[in-house]
Design goal:
The complex is a heterodimer. Chain A is of the alpha+beta class. Chain A is built from 19 helices and 29 strands. The chains are: A alpha+beta, B alpha+beta.
Chain lengths: ~800, ~170
């Protein structure tokens, strides 16, 4: 029997091309081949009215083919004159505003696209952009959450208070929260802030398009997390039938959420230009553009009121937070909804009420960044847990344990509505066991002694812990197609996209296991609408759960057909057949047939094309008394299926860190980092651990280094890798201790849960916890730099409260 | 005002990349990274920041790691340029560094990877037996957003072992 590949750290097939420089990223597509290049004129102002745009002289630059402003769009395609779509409507989102593909009359953030130039190469296109003259009338910008709340100025004149949406969820009956709060033996309140960061994948956005006038078809390559989403919107906006548009997602150089938003203005303007100019057109975002014209996330102000008993059990929890979503809100309320629901983590407050306002500011918009609101929720809840522990003089792990949902309480209904409009009902988990694991892994019990030892050397250390639950694998669905070719090779397609998660490997493992074929014979294609037209996308740690399950089901269907045809050919019962390495044999006999031959037999032929296909021609096979293809059958050896779960599956984890803070310089050093993670059954532990490593590094960045620094006029001051401090190897822990717990999900056939985002969720919380522990005062604003900590020490010693 | 590009002067340059000489006609402002990618079609070299910070575009100039986004192509005449496409064996086999990255899961999206591979190739040539600290130091000038560097450092150490074994094999 072939060894089962699920659960094995199989080496990635992707690496063979990526290591040789043979990856195909979007900027690698259609190099040469008459491809034209785009540059975009972006607003230098955060808030301004456009009085006039003068493009005269631009087309005089040799090599420039087109220069477009908003006024040109309607003539090119009528729907292009409308605002970009509001992707995820919600009843509470009463004031949804989205931008135009090119700014119409006003600009609302530095970086908003104003004019679009197409030229022979990017150098010329940028020269041409430099010739465009725009007359702006400056308006006062709204920068920061306080300014948005104060609403002395408005981002959009027709949106009162800068509030796009206000949403309340309450797990109690009217008055229940107030009563529980009043009755609680102890009460605390906290005010917390988290600043903006961003995904910053090493590859920015990019789109290439080619219009084929001979077949009236558009091919678009985009560095996206949803090829079907891009396809639908390109067709709608350009006035094409869906069937005329193919979207291919090539290799993607990292996404982390930002590439799920669509369409970016260029994602529409590039195919529009390809059609208008009859030449392939390419847009490749540069790094500064990525900072100012893609998307950020994380910025929130939070106010927490909590009532608890002597054990620290949550009797009443009321959270209010203000979420900065930037100048536009195409991705709806997903991020704040996730914050408000996933804040609960592994805990069960008796009654919980959360209210948020999603606010406009004159800054680049906010769409999900790995974790997608969960890091902020985890931070709010875990800061609260630490505050309760400090108040009661209890160990921080004890207070958490007192609030855990217990293993026998699953499925556990949190009485909330999740981001997918479904109940927030946890499917499985074992939080007490996980707590024991993380305590052992970090050395929680031994820490006081370590602290004393360090103190004796004049060194100051602290330990922190943070727990989270992550809803993964949200619907609505994913699908898969499995095709066994006459060569015996298996071609698999699923529609969601890949950006480094090793899908080609992990999915091939599933197919090899289910079909009994060799791993090397399975080839997986993702994100190509020509191969799978129905798909949703890669976000919310959903690829393994959704496409993994769909692929497993599709392989099962293909296998059913394999066994049926083989049983007939071998004149045996299906029950006696087994498939190993692509050979179907009758157990205990030498009778066998390979998958390639079964594929030949599955497709009755009139015309032979080689020796083997003669087997399937009309004078060779078939019962003359029956139709060659039975009524309920179809030709070919294929399986197709879809997976659509009732609700999300809930992964969980706990992180712990030991930090050292320099008593003089306030430098923050990571001494030890530990992760316990439960994503159900593992497909490829090597890949899962890689995801955790990457998440932890991003979390370290978000907690200690990265912040988007806007000045009062709305200029992003650190829009480069020189100034926005992404961690190098020197900033990440040297070694991350990882332990797994595998609590299978009952919701899908493989018992898996998502793993992609997990590593980054508890970072702000765990570092705030550890630094507070080292310093002896609460940390309430993240990220925290050495100078922030230094200032904080000074403030607290100068103004003792 | 931007230059009048219709009269932009072009320069005839011979670029020697991975042992192959290419005659190209380029404006003086053409970056080496762009010339490699767009004029020679060697798209293995990736551009991550265009200001020399991320290291994704690192190539070897006469064996020394250099950021191709900070070099003008016309400067590179008479220089041996090595890109990721030139790291493996002529038979298509992976170099020890490439092999180690595969074994250690030292890459995820693969966008920054070519810059790491060239950097580590040069680094191990200069220091074939790095300590753990030296292995970390060797990749400390390159950004990766996916891996958290854990497996990249392992790959550097593993590459040193593979290369060492190969050298020992040859010596026998």
């Amino acid at each position: 029997m072939t060894t089962k590949l699920m659960g094995q750290g199989v080496q990635r097939v992707e690496d063979q091309r990526l290591l040789r420089g043979q990856g195909r990223f979007v900027d690698d597509v259609l190099v040469g081949q008459g491809t034209l290049h785009v540059a975009v004129l972006r607003s230098p102002h955060a808030h301004a009215r456009i009085r006039d745009i003068d493009v005269s002289g631009v087309l005089d630059v040799e090599g420039v083919h087109a220069v477009w402003t908003y006024d040109d769009l309607a003539g090119l395609a009528p729907n292009m004159a409308d605002p970009l779509p509001l992707l995820i409507p919600h009843p509470a989102l009463t004031q949804g505003r989205t931008q135009y593909a090119l700014a119409k009359d006003e600009v609302n953030y530095v970086g908003e696209a104003v004019a679009f130039v197409v030229a022979e190469d990017r150098y010329l296109a940028e020269d041409a952009v430099g010739r465009i003259q725009v007359d702006y009338e400056l308006l006062p910008p709204v920068v920061g959450i306080e300014a948005a709340r104060a609403a002395d100025q408005l981002v959009h004149p027709d949106v009162p208070g800068n509030v796009a949406a206000r949403l309340v969820q309450d797990t109690g009956a009217p008055g229940e929260l107030e009563a529980a709060m009043a009755a609680a033996p102890h009460r605390l309140s906290l005010d917390l802030t988290v600043e903006r960061s961003a995904c910053t994948p090493l590859e920015g956005r990019g789109t290439v398009a080619r219009w084929d006038p001979d077949t009236n078809r558009m091919t678009v390559w985009s560095s996206t997390q949803t090829s079907t989403g891009v396809r639908a919107v390109v067709a709608a906006k350009l006035g094409l039938d869906l069937g005329q548009v193919d979207v291919v997602t090539p290799d993607v150089g990292g996404g982390f959420g930002v590439k799920i938003n669509h369409p970016w203005p260029e994602e529409l303007l590039v195919p529009l230009a390809a059609r208008a100019l009859g030449r392939p057109v390419k847009f490749t975002e540069d790094r500064r553009e990525h900072f100012i014209s893609s998307a950020h996330e994380r910025g929130q102000l939070q106010h927490i009121e909590v009532g608890f008993d002597d054990d620290g059990r949550l009797q009443a929890l009321e959270v209010t937070f203000w979420h900065d979503h930037g100048a536009y809100i195409p991705y709806g309320l997903i991020v704040p909804i996730i914050t408000s629901t996933q804040l609960l983590g592994p805990y069960k407050p008796r009654v919980y009420r959360v209210t948020f306002e999603s606010l406009y500011t004159n800054t680049v918009m906010v769409t999900p960044y790995r974790g997608a609101g969960r890091p902020q929720g985890c931070y709010a809840m875990e800061r609260t847990m630490d505050a309760i522990a400090a108040y009661l003089g209890k160990d921080r792990t004890e207070v958490r344990a007192a609030n855990f949902i217990q293993p026998d309480e699953f499925p556990y209904d949190q009485r909330m509505t999740f981001q997918d409009g479904r109940e927030l009902e946890y499917d499985s988990g074992d939080y007490p066991a996980m707590l024991e694991k993380i305590k052992a892994l970090i050395g929680w019990e031994e820490f006081p002694r370590f602290r004393e030892e360090m103190a004796a050397q004049g060194r100051q250390v602290g330990i922190g812990l943070a727990c989270y639950v992550e809803g993964t694998g949200v619907g609505p669905y994913e699908g898969a197609h499995v095709h066994i070719e006459t060569s015996g090779k298996v071609k698999v397609a699923t529609g969601l996209t890949s950006q480094g998660q090793g899908h080609q490997t992990a999915f091939a493992q599933l197919v090899a296991d289910e079909l009994g074929v060799r791993f090397e014979d399975v080839e997986v294609v993702t994100g190509d609408t020509r191969r799978m037209a129905y798909a949703v996308g890669t976000f919310a740690s959903r690829a393994a759960v959704m496409s993994g399950s769909a692929i497993h089901l599709a392989a099962k269907r293909a296998k059913e057909k394999v066994l049926r045809i083989a049983a007939e050919a071998l004149e045996a019962s299906e029950d006696d057949l087994e498939i190993v390495d692509g050979i179907v044999s009758v157990r205990g006999t030498t009778a066998h047939i390979d998958l390639g031959t079964i594929a030949v037999l599955s497709n009755p032929l009139r015309y032979a094309f080689d020796e083997r296909s003669k087997l399937a021609t009309q004078f060779s096979v078939g019962d003359p008394g029956k139709p060659p293809v039975a009524e309920d059958d179809e030709p070919g050896l294929e399986g197709k299926d879809f997976y659509s779960p009732e609700r999300s599956t809930f992964a969980s984890g706990m992180h712990a860190v030991i930090v050292e803070t320099d008593p003089r310089t306030a430098e923050i050093k990571i001494l030890k980092y530990a992760v316990v993670h439960d994503c159900g059954n593992l497909i490829n532990p090597m890949i899962v651990e890689g995801q955790i490593h990457g998440g932890v590094a991003q979390g370290v960045g978000g907690a200690l280094y990265e912040r988007m620094v806007y000045d009062e006029s709305g200029q992003l001051l650190n829009a480069s890798f020189m100034d926005f401090l992404m961690p190098y190897v020197t900033e990440v822990p040297d070694g991350i201790a990882i332990d797994h717990l595998e609590t299978p999900s009952p919701l899908n056939p493989l018992g898996i849960k998502g793993a992609g985002e997990a590593g980054v969720i508890p970072s702000a919380a765990v570092f705030a916890s550890a630094i507070s522990d080292a310093e002896g005062f609460p940390i309430t604003a993240m990220p925290i730099s050495p100078s922030d900590l230094f200032q904080l020490r000074r403030t607290l010693t100068e103004e003792p409260s | 005002m931007s230059p009048d590009t219709s009269t932009e002067e072009r320069h005839e340059v011979v670029l020697t990349v991975n042992g192959v000489a290419h005659e190209v006609s380029l404006p003086a402002r053409r970056l080496l990274s762009d010339a490699l990618r767009h004029d020679l079609g060697l798209t293995g070299t990736h551009v991550g920041c265009e200001h020399g910070v991320c290291g994704a575009c690192t190539v070897l100039l006469d064996g020394a790691p250099v950021r191709a986004c900070l070099v003008l192509a016309v400067q590179c005449e008479g220089v041996e340029v090595t890109t990721v496409e030139g790291l493996g064996g002529p038979d298509g086999s992976l170099s020890p560094v490439q092999q180690a990255f595969a074994e250690c899961h030292g890459l995820q999206c693969g966008f920054c990877t070519p810059g790491f591979l060239t950097t580590v190739t040069a680094g191990l040539r200069d220091n074939p037996t790095p300590t753990h600290e030296e292995a970390r130091e060797m990749v400390a000038g390159n950004l990766c957003r996916c891996t958290g560097y854990q497996n990249i450092v392992k790959a550097v150490e593993r590459a040193a072992v593979i290369a060492g074994d190969a050298t020992a094999e040859e010596a026998r």
